[in-house]
Amino acid sequence: MESRIKTIGVLTSGGDAPGMNAAVRAVTRAAIANGMRVKAIFRGYKGLIEGEVQEFTTQDVSGIIQRGGTILKSARCEEFKTPEGRRQAYETLVREQIDALIVIGGDGTFTGARSLSQEYNVTVIGVPATIDNDLWGTDSTIGYDTALNTIMDCVDKLRDTGTSHERVFVVEVMGRDAGFLTLNAAIAGGVEAAIIPERATIAEQIDEALGQGRRKHKNSAIVLVQEHAVEGGAKAVAEMIEQEHPDYGTRVTILGHLQRGGSPTAYDRILASRFGCHAILALLDDQRSIMVGMQNDEIVYVPMAQAIKQKKDIQADRWNALHVLSI
Ligand code: ADP
Description:
Elements: E1 7-12, H1 20-33, E2 37-41, H2 44-50, E3 53-56, H3 83-95, E4 100-105, H4 107-120, E5 123-128, H5 144-165, E6 167-173, H6 180-189, E7 193-195, H7 202-215, E8 221-226, H8 233-244, E9 249-254, H9 266-284, E10 290-295, E11 298-303, H10 304-309, H11 316-325
Parallel strand pairs: 1-2, 1-4, 4-5, 5-10, 6-8, 6-9, 7-8
Antiparallel strand pairs: 2-3, 10-11
C-alpha cells in the first residue's frame, strides 16, 4: 500500500543532545528509502515559522553520525507557544507541501508539536532526544548515555585531585526537574552522596555519608548535586558542608554545558538510528501524534499526550544501591 505521506519535514528543537545528528541521518535515509521526500527545517520551530527549509538528499546527512550537537541547529521559540506563531508554522508546512512532521527533542518540543497537530490536524511523530532522560514511555532518550559517560569521566578526574588533596568535591549536574543523570552518574562514579529532586534527604544524607566515611578513614568525598534539587545548587550545598565539616577542604565544580557536547556513544548512535527508522515506519503504519520509545530494548509507540503528561519515576532500586555502596 502506498503511503499517503509523500513529504516529511524534520527538525531538532530544545536543548541539543549528542545523537540528534544520528537521528536526523536515520530519519532522512529511512524516509528516502521508502520513497518520501525530506525537507530539513533549520532552528527548530523558529525556522518552521520563518520558512527556513531545505530539501535533503542522503548525501546531506553523510559524515554526521559521530558529531555532537545538531546540524539542523536548535533554538528556543516563544512565538510557537502562541496560536499566531503556530498558524505561521502551519502555513510553512502547507507551502512546502509537508505531509508529516518529525520533531526531535524533549518535553517542550512535543508539547508544541501536539498543539500544532490538534489545531491543524497535522501528523506529528516525536523522537525523544534530551540528556535529561525525563520522558515517560521510553527507557532512554537520545543523548542521555553520552552525557552520563561525560559526567562519569569528570567525576573520575575530580576523584584524583580529591583523594590527593583530601577534599570534598561538590559537583553540580544538569537534569532540569529530573535526577536520572545525577543518580546514575553517582552510581557509575562511586560517589559518596547524591542530591536529586525526587528524594528530599539532603542534610541527613550528606552528614551520614561524610560522617561514616570519616569514621572509616575516608579522607575525601564527592557529592553530586542535581542543578535544581536545592536552592542555590552546588554552592549552597558546599557552604552547608563547610559549616558541618570544617575539617574538610570543600570545592565546587559546576559541569555546565560540558555535559551536552561531544561525540555520541555507540549506545546513543544505535538508539538514534533505531528511533529514526521507526519514526518512518510509524508513518507507514498510519500513526500520528505518537512518540517513538524504547522499552526493554523493544521499540514502542507512545501517545504523545502520555509521554508529555506522565512523570517518569526515579529508579528506586538504584537509589537504594547508591546508599548501600557509597559508604
Ligand atoms: P525541550 O524540547 O528540550 O523540552 P524546550 O522546553 O525549550 O525544550 O522546548 C522547545 C521549544 O518547544 C520551545 O522553544 C517552544 O518553541 C516549544 N514549546 C515548549 N513548550 C511549549 C508549549 N507549552 N506550547 C507550544 N510550544 C512549546
